[in-house]
Specification:
mainly alpha, 6 helices
Length: 119
Amino acid sequence: MKKIIQILVIVLLVLIILILSAGAYIWFKNPLVVKGIVESKIPFIEKPQMDETYDHPLLDTAQETQLRDIGIDPSDLPEEITAEQQECVEEKLGVERIQELMSGQSPSPMDAFKAMQCL
């Protein structure tokens, strides 16, 4: 009985350490763009200053607003898309989704996450 309790305690400690490690990795490396979403929802965390008047030539205002909401500053995005970047985004999102975005549909957080790897 004592052996079973020791094994359970060890398993629980390992799980807690793994969860904390995964949480720290996701927060600091930000691979899922979670940090921007969490910071935008928590009022006491100071948001980085973004130029709200900046008008990106490749995005409409709804797309810019959605990017700001998930913590991406549109002024940090390139104003021209190179052929390599376009091929990369086509590979990540697919041609059909790109056509939807070009026609004015707002990008989802997953779209932004996938496309950020190309920019």
